[in-house]
Write a structure and sequence with these properties.
The chain has 170 residues and is an alpha+beta fold. 16% of the residues lie in helices and 39% in strands. It has two helices and nine strands, in the order ββββαβββαββ. β1 and β2 form a beta hairpin. The longest helix is centred in the C-terminal third of the chain and has 14 residues. The protein is globular and about 40 Å long. The protein starts with 5 loop residues before the first strand and ends in a 5-residue tail after the last strand.
Length: 170
């Protein structure tokens, strides 16, 4: 019998500067220790926090950048089964329409850098980000896509699209 894994709810926020470069954080903590990824964090479910509220809060806490829910576009939702064999994740993916004007100072979560989309190919990224997340961002950042990913260790990563809106984005 397999172990019961917890289910975690989180957001990722894709921020760009005025030059169109992505703001990423090199994680100093698990998950994704040492890898570069968009900012984000867990939804405070005990507070009844919505994914949009979490994205606003995490952007302020991690990037010291004040935004509102109106600055956000929810472009994706991905259910990751057995990520790193530790837990299941439901991630809400946001693109911030408001460009960030400053490079945030390092925090206990990690330090920041700006990267062109092409430069991301040379960075240390979580495998799911490299093979699934960034291609999803490239194709659907102006639409909406719901996906599921089987991240079970020992199996090839399998990502399946469950819905794309509008259908012209498919």
């Amino acid at each position: 019998m397999s172990a019961v894994l917890s289910h975690k709810l989180a957001v990722l926020v894709f921020l760009e500067n005025t030059a169109g470069e992505q703001l990423l954080i090199q994680r100093a903590k698990m998950p994704n220790l040492g890898n570069w990824s968009p900012i984000g964090g867990k939804i405070e479910t005990t507070q009844g926090e919505s994914p949009f509220e979490c994205a606003v809060r995490e952007t302020q806490e991690e990037a010291d950048f004040t935004i509102t829910t109106a600055d956000l576009h929810l472009f994706g939702m991905i259910s990751e089964k057995a990520y790193e064999g530790q837990s299941h994740w439901l991630l809400f993916l946001f693109r911030c329409r408001k460009p960030i004007a400053h490079l945030p100072s390092a925090i206990d979560e990690g330090h920041f850098g700006y990267f062109s989309r092409e430069a991301l190919n040379e960075l240390s990224l979580p495998e799911t980000d490299r093979t699934a997340l960034w291609p999803i961002y490239d194709k659907y950042r102006d639409c909406f896509v719901a996906l599921r990913a089987d991240c079970m260790p020992g199996r090839p990563l399998l990502v399946e699209i469950e819905e794309v809106t509008p259908s012209s984005c498919a």
